[in-house]
Amino acid sequence: MRALVLAMCACGASAPATPKGAPASLEATSAGSGDAIVARVDGHPVWGSCVAVQAARAHVDARAALEQCVDFELLAQAAAKRGLERDPEVVDATRDALVNQLVARAYEDAFTTPDDFGPVWTDVMIRHKALNNYKHGEYRGSAYVRVTVKAPPPAEDPAARAVAERVAAALAPERGLFSSDLVDIARRAAGDIELDHGDVPPYQHDALDPAYADALWAIPEVGRTSPVVRTSWGYDVVLWTEEVAATNPTTDELVHEALPEVQRAFFATWVNRLARAMNLHVETEPDAEQRLEATPQ
């Protein structure tokens, strides 16, 4: 099927360049013992599998898909009569399609469970802590304005607290605030008093200053602010800016989410296994890097 499509695309190309490699096969092949011949073009079969794939790909009914597959076969035979099976582009495209099919069927469809990957699964999921990407508690992003107090808690500074209370009162009625809104309103409320401010990326509760975290988690909705809270650095008014909801996937869901990453990590191992099984030896030319640099891009 893929070879037929490649032949169809190549049919409108310019004259073939110097042939290289074995000719690409333009013969449609069966998808298996249950595949049925549904038409013939000058004796060459059109298979039911072609119709099924084309119907799904083009979103057409079986009759329209059959007509398209017949057209593919006509074009493939026309291409063969013009010698396009030896065109370098056709040969390379067919080779690429073979590689894609091997990877899809012998790798992506065959390596799908943790046991298939052995230690590589553990390496990706545990040592690199990939589990944290899929299974975690709630994260909250925030911003703050602060009247800094040099002495750590429980030391109090009534004047600094009064400024922070004024800022909090100005922010309390607001909804849907962004960090920039927080700073603008707070500065107007503070007058000539200098405020510190900052944006804090999403963290879980236990990763933040306890007083800051308690204030942040007490805010009822994103875009609203907290009352004044005495943190390790001073008197803060906290804005909830972003939520990353907790997630606790099942084992099957976790495997599904992590599978692409683990497949990428294991791919080189799989390729090396194929090479050993086929007794293939790979040699890289000593000046390969220089040759690649000199190759036109």
Structure in a nutshell:
The protein has 11 helices and 6 strands. The protein has 297 residues and is α+β, with helices and mostly antiparallel strands.
How would you describe this structure to a colleague?
- The structure is a single chain.
- With 297 residues, the protein is of the alpha+beta class.
- Among the domains are: 2-86, no CATH class; 139-244, Chitinase A, domain 3, CATH 3.10.50.
- The chain is 48% helix and 13% strand.
- The chain is built from eleven helices and six strands.
- It has a four-stranded antiparallel β-sheet with strand order 4-3-6-5. A two-stranded antiparallel ribbon has the order 1-2.
- Helix 1 (2-10) runs antiparallel to helix 4 (88-108), helix 2 crosses helix 3 (62-81) and helix 7 (158-171) crosses helix 8 (179-190).
- It is elongated, with a radius of gyration of 32 Å.
- The two termini are 31 Å apart.
Q: What's the order of the H and E elements?
A: HEEHHHHHEHHEHEEHH
Main sheet characteristics: 4 strands, antiparallel
The shape is elongated
Rg (C-alpha, Å): 32 Å
Give the total of beta strands. 6
- Strand-residue proportion: 5-15%
Mean pLDDT, to the nearest integer, reads 85
And the CATH topology of the domain at 139-244? Chitinase A, domain 3
N→C terminal distance: 31 Å
Structural category is alpha+beta
H/I helix tally = 11
Sheet with the most strands: spatial strand order: 4-3-6-5
**What is the annotated CATH architecture of the domain at 139-244?**
Roll
The parts where pLDDT drops under 50 for at least 5 residues are 1-19
- The percentage helix is 40-55%
CATH class of the domain at 139-244: Alpha Beta
